[in-house]
Amino acid sequence: MSSVLYDVPGPRARRRAVVGSVVGGLLLLALVAWAVVRLASNGVFDAERWAMFVEEPEIWTFLGTGLLATLRAAAIAAVLAAVVGLALAVLRLSTNRVVRGVTAVVVELFRGLPVVLLMFFAVVALGLPILHGVVCGLTIYNAAIVSEILRAGIVSLPRGQREAGAAIGLSEPQILWTILLPQAVRRMLPALISQLVVLLKDTSLGYIISYAELLRSVDNLQNFYGSRSLIPLFFVGATIYIAVNLSLSRVAVMLERRGTAKAAGGTARADTVERLNAPAAGAGGGPPEAR
C-alpha cells in the first residue's frame, strides 16, 4: 500500500522510527534534566526570586501593557502585509512582462533586507514614530513573503481551473479573483498562519529601536528589580510568547479543517459510493433498479 506522496513504511522502517523516537526522547529528557539541575544549582528556583510575581501585581500590568503593544503592532502589520502582499502577488502574475519584472525586483529586494534595517530606515531616515517604524519594517518584509506564498498557491493549481473559467466566459481578472485566489488562500493557509507567527515574533525586534513591546517591558523590569530577576522575568516573557503563538497555531488548524470541510461538503465518501453501486447480494441479485 502506498500514499500519493510517499510509500507507506514497512515493519522494519516502523521499528527504526520507533527506536529513533525513543532514543531522541530520552536524549531530550536528559538534556532538560541537565538544564534543570544546572539552574537549580545556581539558585534560579529559589522562592525569593519568584515571589515578586505574587507580591507585586504591578508586574503583570506592566507585562500586559507590553503584550498589548506587541499585539497592536503585529495586528496592524499583518493586515497591511496581507493587502500589500496580495497586490504584489497579482502584479507578479501579470501578463505584462515589464510589470512582472519590476514586481519581481521589488519582492526580492524586500525579502533580502533585514527587518531591523527597515525599522531603522523608517524611524531615522523617514522620521516616522516608533510604532509606525516597527509596523513599516514588518509590513515591507512580510508583504514580500506573503506575495510569494500566494503566488506559489496560484501556480500550484491545475491549469484546468483557469481553462474552465475561460470556457464559461470569465475574464482574466474574474478568473483570478473568483476561482484561483480563493483556492490558493485555502491551500496555503497553514503557510500564511506560520508567517503570521513569524511576524508576531519579529515585533521583538522593535526592542532595538526602543519600542515598548513585551521584550522591552521584560528588560525594563529586569533593570528595575536587578539581575537576580533576569531568568524569572524572561521565563515568564517566553511563556507568554509561546502561549500566543500556540493560540495562533490552533486557529490555523481550525481554519484549515473548516476550509477543508467546506471544500469537501456534499461529496460522498468512496466506500459509500462503492456500496451503493455494488450489485445486491442474494436471490434478487442485480442493480437496485432491477429489484
Describe the protein in words.
The chain is mostly helical and 291 residues long. The chain has helices at residues 11-41, 47-50, 52-55, 58-92, 97-112, 115-125, 130-155, 159-167, 172-187, 189-202, 214-225, 230-263, 270-277. It has a domain at 71-211: MetI-like (MetI-like fold). The two termini are 37 Å apart. The model is unreliable at 264-277 and 280-291 (pLDDT under 50).
Secondary structure tally: strands? 0
Termini separation comes to 37 Å
Which residue ranges are poorly predicted, with pLDDT under 50 across at least 5 consecutive positions?
Answer: 264-277, 280-291
CATH class of the domain at 71-211: Mainly Alpha
What is the overall silhouette? globular
Cα Rg: 27 Å
Order of helices and strands: HHHHHHHHHHHHH
Main sheet attributes: strand count, strand direction, barrel closure = none
Provide a count of the helices. Answer: 13
What fraction strand?
Answer: under 5%
Q: Mind telling me which CATH architecture of the domain at 71-211 this is?
A: Orthogonal Bundle
Quick one: CATH superfamily of the domain at 71-211? MetI-like
Supply the helix-strand structural class. Answer: mainly alpha
What is the average per-residue confidence, as pLDDT, rounded to a whole number? 82
Within the CATH hierarchy, at the fold level, what is the topology of the domain at 71-211? MetI-like fold
Percent helix? over 70%
